Amino acid sequence: MKLVIIDDDPLVTTSLKTILEMEKDFEVAAVGHSGEEACQLYQKWEPDILLMDIRMGEMTGIMAAKVILKAQPTAKILLLTTFSDDEYIHEALNLGVKGYLVKQDFPSLIPAIKAIQSGQSVFGTEITDKLIHLVNHPKKEMSPVFFDKLTQREQEVLLKIAEGKNNKEIAKELFLSEGTVRNYISLLLEKLSLRDRTQLAIYYYQEKNE
Hints:
Elements: E1 2-6, H1 10-20, E2 27-32, H2 35-45, E3 49-53, H3 61-71, E4 77-81, H4 86-95, E5 99-102, H5 106-117, E6 122-123, H6 125-136, H7 152-162, H8 167-174, H9 178-192, H10 197-208
Parallel strand pairs: 1-2, 1-3, 3-4, 4-5, 5-6
Helix pairs in contact: 2-3, 3-4, 7-10, 8-9
């Protein structure tokens, strides 16, 4: 089974490669450290399964998965994360990725890969518990404003901008990287046809007061 591993931490890719290559049927064709590399390496190697971190720099694992699945809808992608973030779970399900595991769940990794290869979808125990909770306790909007154009996470970033927070502060409060925050701001500017973060703040308060 041919695998490609993507994680922005070289120590993680090295560790995963070592663990996986202990299985005689597994071959790690390549490793990469960004969403952009994920797209390039998938196209080059066409692996049976792509293991990919979610939280990376400018291009997250979710973004890379969208690009890959658009070009190759049958791609088998297993997303790995250190957090069981609600929105990421929703996005992963909507994208059609084949698996979603918390990185610390090492005992489930090899069985998950084999299950995905056999045509199953795999979500770790922690993720399954979270899904059950989300079904029974739907997430409330954090913002008093509901923007049809924006995802929940984009609304959260917009609210922080309106509160005058800088990228570093937003990243810390929302548990994102600064690169990911910059990416969300670019998406907001594009979606709302605005020029800068000042206009984003003005837009927020205008919509809030309508």
